[in-house]
Amino acid sequence: MASNSTYTCMIVDDELLACQLLTLHVKQMPQLSIVQICSSAVEAGKYLNANEVDLIFLDIEMPKLSGLEFLKSFTHHSKVILTTAHAEFALDAFELNVIDYLLKPITFDRFEVAVGKALGVLKLERKQKVPSQFSIEQSSVLIRSNKQLVRINLGDILYIEGLHKYVKIVTTAKTLVSLIGLSAMEDELPQTLFYRCQRSFIINLQKAEAINANRIIIGTHSIPMGKDFRNGLIERLGKRIR
């Protein structure tokens, strides 16, 4: 997870030399940290289903699924800088709300300008980000439920289930329902303690007792797990002894 002064980034390009050049450029930017390099948009989509990334360097021309096709179905909050060898895609790119558009071969000066734009947006969003329906205070969370504010210790939460515009919070002692989206709540929870194991579920990592093919066992509860989230969950749970 990135600190308050650094931002995670991912490179998506099927050309090895292009990936190597972008990697060299990123290493000269102390504000950026590479968390993943993907050779296809399909691979990138799987990674993003289980992980959050601040900034993506996305190639346009790739086999199976192009960068533009990938963006048209993009539902993540990541900022995108497109990379390509052809200028004719520029108009389509900006209609998809990308931060910038870099022509290969990418010089560091031009790369630095594009990253500067992205960092400006990311810093502003991080500064303005405040919880709207609840607030976190040290190791507890204040939830509006049943017309009152209820304090819950984070360590007591077993899992959280998204129910359209609501969330159901299951703790060791009680179950609460609150009018807030699951993604909004996930944004405010500490990632060191909580993990989104499926589109509709967030679990407390410290409460997970076992994992089978597609379920996570927490006490008497059996939580569904998305197959694309399994490897990320295993990594987060700690060292694995084979």
Folded structure, characterized:
29% of the residues lie in helices and 33% in strands. The chain contains seven helices and 16 strands. The chain has helices at 16-27, 41-50, 67-72, 90-95, 108-128, 182-188, 230-237, and strands at residues 7-12, 32-38, 55-59, 79-84, 100-103, 135-137, 140-145, 148-153, 157-163, 166-171, 175-178, 194-198, 201-204, 210-211, 215-218, 221-224. A hairpin with a 2-residue loop joins strand 15 (215-218) and strand 16 (221-224).
Number of DSSP-assigned strands: 16
Poorly predicted sequence stretches spanning 5 or more consecutive residues: 130-137
Mean pLDDT: 85
Class of secondary structure makeup:
alpha/beta
What percent strand?
Answer: 25-35%
Architecture blueprint of SSEs:
Elements: E1 7-12, H1 16-27, E2 32-38, H2 41-50, E3 55-59, H3 67-72, E4 79-84, H4 90-95, E5 100-103, H5 108-128, E6 135-137, E7 140-145, E8 148-153, E9 157-163, E10 166-171, E11 175-178, H6 182-188, E12 194-198, E13 201-204, E14 210-211, E15 215-218, E16 221-224, H7 230-237
Parallel strand pairs: 1-2, 1-3, 3-4, 4-5
Antiparallel strand pairs: 6-7, 7-8, 9-10, 9-13, 10-11, 12-13, 14-15, 15-16
Features:
242 residues, five-stranded parallel beta sheet, five-stranded antiparallel beta sheet
Task: Put the structure in a nutshell.
Helix content is about 30%, strand content about 35%. It is built from seven helices and 16 strands.
